[in-house]
Write a structure and sequence with these properties.
The structure holds 2 protein chains of 2 kinds.
Chain A (H helix, E strand, L loop, with lengths): L23 E8 L3 E18 L14 E18 L3 H12 L10 E5 L2 H13 L2 E4 L2 H15 L4 E4 L7 E3 L9 E6 L3 E6 L5 E7 L3 H11 L5 H10 L7 E2 H5 L13 E3 L2 H5 L11 H26 L4 E6 L6 H15 L4 E5 L5 H9 L5 H4 L1 E4 L10 H4 L3 H8 L1 E8 L3 E2 L21 H25 L6 H21 L9 H14 L7 H23 L3 H16 L6 H9 L5 H7 L7 E2 L1 H9 L11 E5 L5 H16 L3 E6 L10 H14 L1 H8 L3 E5 L12 E2 H10 L3 E5 L1 H6 L9 E8 L2 H6 L6 E7 L1 H13 L2 H7 L11 H8 L5 H11 L12 H19 L26
Helix pairs in contact in A: 1-2, 3-10, 4-8, 5-8, 8-9, 14-15, 14-16, 15-16, 17-22, 17-23, 18-20, 18-21, 18-22, 23-24, 28-31
Chain B lengths: L1 H4 L8 H4 L8 H11 L17 E6 L3 E9 L7 H15 L3 E2 L3 E3 L5 E6 L2 E11 L3 H10 L8 E5 L2 H4 L1 H8 L2 E5 L1 H14 L6 E5 L8 E4 L8 E6 L3 E6 L5 E7 L3 H12 L4 H9 L8 E2 H5 L13 E3 L7 H6 L2 H27 L3 E5 L7 H14 L5 E5 L3 H21 L2
Parallel strand pairs in B: 1-7, 7-8, 11-16, 16-17
Antiparallel strand pairs in B: 1-2, 2-6, 3-4, 4-6, 5-6, 9-10, 9-17, 11-12, 12-13, 14-15
Classes of the chains: A alpha/beta, B alpha+beta.
Chain lengths: 886, 415
């Protein structure tokens, strides 16, 4: 261990740390007693592809339907960098040296500074940077920063369960964040009760905080740095120093349920052995551990007491004490669960150290600016949570902890939750949580690791004229693979680990390496080819009777969905056979009955047969997938059928490129070209019964919590009563379990053998799920009368699910709209009796609540504490649990 | 006194059981059951019969408190018993210190005490619990077992050492719940109107005019008891018969002593307190003014409030120049403030205004008492009052009396 050096690595700040500093516009600084955080906004320049309607005479294609060209685009990004306060001077020098070149530097020459050091360093900052320092209140910043993160960063807050699977449970987007208790652990500790954006107060504090751990720790051990102490603590054992119940009682104090390992007196044995020379000196690891335990427990207890006094159920921890250290989080979680008996929820923040800096930065923005935009974490540029068991010895770990980074992108539009969701709060987009499902995690991490080479090659090919394309693409490969490796070590480092996140991370890393739309030319070629076949396809379909036409439309939609360059197996087919077309794809499809086959119900609904009194749909919202055959030969005819039945159609495409998915700007042009071929589409476009809109998404998956505000309004105005979600990314990796307050059609072809087998199918298995909204209402009445036994009986795993995890067993049992589906729904909705009033909230919600139930059990169980998980519940006196009699 | 004590006799259940076998653990169940029923007078159950020299022990995590009742007149005892009594007398009275660690608190000795109709004196001896093996050897060697079939014991050690006492010394430890004993000890003050025993500090916010004032502890309910031993237990007492342990913390006297030993190399509590009395914690802690340059007015934090305990020790230079005395003082202040803070929140939660601080941590520790008085007053805007007990002796006597009387109770129900 002697070779390790702590905090020496940052003597020279570089642009690797201060990303994009040359384009910085506005600064804010939070200077704490031991750590300083710099926040700045920068303008990020990147390439973006645009498509143009006017044919380019010099185009390589004979008669291109549209033209593609690259454009420069600017985006605003927020950067947050954290380092020890002692380096502030060299950091200011660095900033100054780099900013002299920037004319726009520091907007109005005033920078917001907060934290205790605002007083001490004002002169230094003013003289170094030549700006005016405006001091802002620390606690106001803290809370503004916390609110911002909770509202805008989906996987910001999480519960920590040492024995849970997964250990980290992220809270997701929570629109209802108030009231909460914010425990900010800096050198000392402040506790603030936050009731709304503007209503908060400091209700208490304690002087035993990070400074105590560091100060006392470095007096008692040879460690000099905070992380070094944490590192020692991770390896230590507190038992030689702490007096446990068993040291006093000789064992458990069973009568009142206090375990033998409960700490009665922190450091209580340090004195006992003081003069006993037969006892060897205490080792520094053990001392560090006792100290960390003692301080964490104390903060946990004080937080609990304050939360209880003020009737608050959620406690968030900020500051930079915890640092994602599992032992600390566990100790605090355990203390709070112990005292509150699980009633009060301790939550940790991935960016705990930045609250104040974010708040200070926001204070410098124009009023309401933060609210006008949506914000998204730049996964490519932020540091993840540390993974102590691996990283303690690595240089990266110390880089991260000394210069830990956070980047947030400003999105140029406001993103809102989809109003068609049945339960917006309970909605969780992703079907499989890879932090929880080890098999799936292993598979997908490996799968993406292998596919990364393919992505690199495509990236190189997409920019044939760029001299450094190969270099940048290799850079992408290196970064992405290194990320995948780190996720293997700590799957929770960047929030929920899902297929969606892995895809999005790849996309944002490509973008960082200046590759924006690597499928641009491929898409163009396929779109052209498909457009040529559209009129034949339409003629063929028009010749069929309605019932058969509906089937062929469904098959066409599915066959189109085969054309997915994101699926490796499909890539091979498409590369081998240039002529692979719709018919070939149809032949690949699973034959009916499909793996998930609700086609008959869908046809009944569309033909209004069997006595159905339902009128045609008023408005359908379609989230489409791939370019080429998919959109043109699969989706357009399907849209046309809906239009001809009197349904208004909102056709949504991604706002920015990802894989070969059709992008909004392309879709606009394609719709126009298609309308030249088909009069139905033409008149619908003209009459605004066909609306082409952007979804606000930039991912091959679909997060319905964050879709374009304009689209949200249009859905509501048009009274959308059908949502169609197409493709593996949107309907399987995400939204498979989403429930809507209208009918929903989820259509996809499973183009991954492993996944298909997981569902009990094979390659090219078909999902055609039609979920009618009344099917969701039905179980509510049943739920009220059904007994628990009936529920249990109905939830017995079906053969399909036997190979899957418990989560996919609910998938399997709800795969049709038959009574099985309702029962599975019913089962999950009532799995938490406390929430039975929300039993209409859909499986997304019930999934969440039943998980919470598990957590409670986990933490309440005294046996959950292993021998080295001490709590301080006691005293050297005989501790007695509170008696009932008062 | 004993007349009064025996008042409670009538509603005492133990004899009704007619339990005969005193060596069986049935005693524990019975006593605990009795306690749990909340009969505060049960300890007063004394009855006639031969008097015996008796031991009572409070075996804490750090310190063992031993009380020994020595009859003035030993003529009534048989030869063997007289022999043992003389042996013990010679050993105990021959010195005030035993080995390097055992101490007899001569100033606490109580003469002319009447227990079970027998006149005698009560001796108080304390030694570190870590020396228990030596005490057991002594008891074995001196044949304490000839004197009594049991020793009444409370504290965690009553459980820890039960088996050893039985197998090595042939003495049974009769265990009594520690918190029960404590609460009853405090009731004892109330009961006998020991007004001068309870006091508070007036003007705790002003060091120049802060002074001890007697507090009338008649009908004190509800009140909070903060018992600071090695760790801390916090009890809410609603009436004579109703109390509950509402909280506790492992940061107690043991933590203070442990940290002080590690930081300064001192060896005893007295030494640690003595160091602290000469130190200044402001050289060690980071105060609000060290960070903000003055008061943090927006949230009512005074400049001289501690912002971060040991916060200045993050600096290497400051660590080098830190003095032992200052470190001891900072440790004391940190621990005391933390206990005060937790006690205050418990009082608020329980809606209680009187907080009685007891326990060995406060022995020879005026610094902590004044700090607690200050903290209670300051952070509650005067609504909370910190109460203390004179010498701590009162409680200890009460506990010992209870132990003795319960031992008698147990011992003499038998025949």
């Amino acid at each position: 261990m002697a070779h390790k050096s702590y905090a020496r690595s940052i003597d020279l700040p570089t642009e690797q740390v201060f990303h994009n500093i040359r384009n910085a516009r506005r600064f804010a600084i939070d200077i704490g007693g031991s750590l300083a955080k710099v926040a700045y906004s920068s303008v990020v320049k990147r390439k973006s592809t645009m498509v143009f309607d006017e044919p380019d005479v010099e185009g390589v294609c004979g008669s291109p339907i549209y033209n593609v060209s690259e454009m420069d685009q600017e985006a605003v990004r927020l950067h947050f960098v954290k380092f020890e306060t002692k380096y502030i001077e060299s950091c200011l020098d660095f900033i100054k040296a780099n900013l002299i070149k920037s004319k726009e530097f520091v907007h109005d020459k005033v920078i917001k500074v907060t934290g205790g050091g605002a007083y001490k360093y004002t002169d230094l900052i003013q003289s170094k940077l030549g700006v005016t320092v405006d001091k802002v209140d620390e606690i106001a910043c803290l809370i503004e920063g916390c609110n911002f993160l909770l509202k805008h960063i989906p996987d910001e807050a999480f519960c920590y369960m040492r024995h849970g699977n997964p250990e980290y449970k992220f809270q997701g987007v929570d629109s209802d964040i108030f009231p909460y208790l914010l425990v900010n652990i800096g050198s000392g500790v402040s506790l603030c009760k936050v009731e709304s954006e503007s209503k908060f107060e400091r209700i208490g504090g304690t002087s035993m905080g990070g400074g105590t751990f560091w100060g006392l720790g470095s007096l008692l051990t040879s460690a000099k740095e905070f992380d070094e102490l944490l590192d020692l603590a991770e390896r230590g054992d507190h038992k030689p120093l702490d007096m446990l119940v068993k040291d006093i009682y000789g064992g458990n104090y069973g009568e009142i349920g206090l375990g033998a390992d409960v700490i009665a007196s922190s450091f209580g044995k340090a004195a006992r052995c003081a003069r006993d020379t037969s006892v060897p000196d205490f080792n520094k690891e053990d001392i560090a551990r006792s100290l960390l335990l003692c301080i964490s427990n104390d903060i946990g207890q004080i937080a609990y007491l304050q939360a209880r006094l003020h009737g608050v159920k959620k406690i968030y921890f900020g500051g930079f004490f915890i640092r994602g250290h599992p032992f600390t989080m566990h100790t605090m979680t355990f203390a709070i669960n112990y005292w509150s008996k699980g009633d009060i929820q301790p939550l940790f923040l991935r960016h705990e150290g930045y609250l104040c800096a974010i708040g200070a930065f926001l204070k410098g923005m124009k009023d309401g600016d933060a609210e006008h935009y949506s914000w998204g974490e730049n996964l490519a540029g932020s540091s993840g949570l540390a993974s102590p068991q691996h990283s303690a010895a690595s240089f990266d770990y110390h880089m991260r902890n000394n210069f830990s980074l956070l980047e947030i992108n400003r999105l140029e539009r406001s993103l809102l939750p989809c109003p068609l969701l049945r339960d917006i709060i309970g909605y969780f987009p992703d079907t499989v949580d890879l932090t929880q499902d080890g098999d799936a995690r292993d598979y997908w991490l490996d799968c993406f690791y292998k596919n990364a080479v393919k992505t690199r090659d495509l990236a190189i090919n997409s920019q044939p004229t760029s001299p450094d394309a190969t270099e940048r693409a290799n850079d992408f490969l290196k970064k992405y693979r290194s990320r995948l490796k780190s996720l293997e070590q700590n799957p929770c480092a960047f929030g929920h680990l899902t297929v969606r996140n892995l895809l999005d991370t790849s996309a944002s890393m490509l973008e960082e390496c200046l590759f924006t739309d690597i499928f641009s030319q491929q898409k163009q070629l396929e779109n052209e080819a498909a457009l040529h076949q559209l009129s034949d396809r339409l003629a063929y379909l028009d010749g069929l009777p309605l019932s058969e036409r509906l089937l062929q439309l469904a098959i066409g939609l599915l066959a189109g969905n085969v054309f997915d360059w994101g699926a490796l197996e499909v890539c091979r087919i498409l590369e081998q056979s240039k002529s692979f077309g719709l018919e070939d794809a149809q032949a690949k499809l699973q034959k009916r009955p499909w793996l998930f086959d609700d086609f008959d119900a869908w046809r009944n609904r569309m033909t209004q047969s069997k006595g159905s009194q339902k009128p045609p749909y008023k408005c359908a919202v379609i989230f489409c997938d791939n370019s080429g055959v998919d959109i043109i030969l699969g989706v357009f005819p399907f849209v046309r059928q809906l239009l001809s039945m009197g349904t208004t159609v909102i056709l949504c495409a991604n706002s920015a490129p990802s894989l070969n998915d059709v992008v909004f700007v392309e879709l606009q042009l394609l719709a126009k070209h298609a309308s030249d071929i088909c009069p139905v589409l033409r008149s619908a476009l003209a009459e605004r019964r066909l609306l082409v809109m952007e979804s606000g998404q930039t991912s091959p998956c679909l997060d319905l919590r964050l879709i374009d505000g304009h689209l949200v309004r249009t859905m509501t105005e048009q009274g959308a009563d059908l949502v169609v979600i197409e493709g593996m990314g949107r309907a399987i990796h995400t939204n498979m379990e989403a429930t809507f307050n209208c009918d929903a059609l989820k259509v996809a072809v499973i183009k991954n053998k492993w996944l298909a087998q997981r569902f009990g199918g094979d390659m090219f298995a078909v999902m055609f799920r039609f979920e009618q909204s009344q099917d969701h209402r039905l179980p509510q009445t049943v739920a009220a009368t059904a007994t628990a036994q009936e529920l249990t009986a109905s939830l017995l795993p079906s053969p399909l699910s036997s190979a899957c995890s418990s989560r996919s067993s609910s998938l399997a049992s709800s795969r049709s709209t038959s009574p099985v589906s309702s029962l599975s729904y019913l089962g999950s909705a009532t799995s938490d009796s406390r929430k039975s009033q929300t039993s209409d909230s859909g499986s997304g919600r019930s999934k969440k609540t039943s998980r919470q139930t598990c957590d409670d059990e986990d933490e309440q169980s005294p046996t959950a504490s292993s021998a080295n998980i001490p709590i301080t519940a006691s005293s050297a006196n005989i501790p007695i649990t509170p008696r009932g009699s008062r | 006194m004993d007349q009064k004590l025996s008042n409670g006799h009538a509603n005492d259940p133990p004899s009704s059981n007619g339990h005969q076998d005193s060596s069986q653990p049935v005693q524990e169940d019975n006593t605990l059951g009795k306690m749990r029923k909340g009969s505060p007078d049960s300890f007063c159950d004394l009855r006639g019969g031969p008097s015996m020299p008796l031991f009572g022990m409070d075996i804490g995590g750090t310190l063992t408190k031993l009380v020994y009742f020595e009859p003035d007149n030993i003529d009534d005892f048989d030869q063997a018993e007289q022999q043992t009594l003389r042996t013990i007398h010679r050993y105990l009275m021959g010195s005030t210190a035993y080995g390097t660690t055992g101490i007899r608190d001569v100033h606490l000795e109580m003469k002319e005490q009447n227990i079970c109709g027998r006149q005698g004196r009560i001796h108080f001896i304390r030694f570190p619990t870590s020396q228990m093996p030596a005490f057991i050897d002594l008891a074995k060697y001196r044949k304490f077992s000839g004197l009594a079939s049991g020793i009444c014991a409370t504290g965690g050690g009553a459980y820890m050492f039960e088996d050893v006492f039985e197998s090595e010394v042939h003495l049974q430890l009769h265990k009594y719940d520690e918190l029960d004993s404590l609460v009853k000890g405090i009731h004892y003050i109330d009961r006998y109107n020991l007004n001068s025993e309870c006091y508070y500090f007036c003007n705790p916010l002003d060091p120049s005019s802060c002074e001890k004032m007697p507090f009338n502890f008649q009908d004190p309910y509800p009140y909070l008891v903060v018992n600071i031993g090695s760790g801390v237990s916090i009890l809410s007492v609603r009436s004579k018969s109703q109390y509950s342990r509402v909280s506790g913390t492992s940061l107690g006297g043991g933590t203070f002593l442990g940290l002080c030993c590690l930081l300064t190399g001192c060896e005893t509590f007295e030494e640690a307190i003595e160091l602290a009395s000469r130190g200044d914690s402001e050289n060690i802690d980071k105060l609000v003014k060290d960070i903000y340059g003055g008061d943090y007015n927006k949230f009512g934090l005074k400049g001289d409030a501690v912002a971060s305990s040991f916060g200045q020790m993050m600096s290497k230079e400051k660590r080098k120049s830190a003095k032992k005395e200052d470190l001891a003082r900072a440790t004391l202040v940190t621990l005391t403030n933390n206990i005060g803070s937790i006690a205050r929140m418990c009082a608020k939660t329980e809606k209680i205004e009187r907080v009685v601080f007891v326990g060995n941590f406060l022995r020879v520790n005026t610094i902590s008492m004044k700090l607690l008085a200050f903290a209670m007053e300051y952070w509650s805007n005067g609504s909370l009052k910190a109460l203390f007990l004179e010498h701590e002796v009162c409680i200890r006597i009460a506990i010992c009396k209870i132990l003795l009387s319960q031992c008698l109770d147990f011992r003499f129900v038998d025949p």
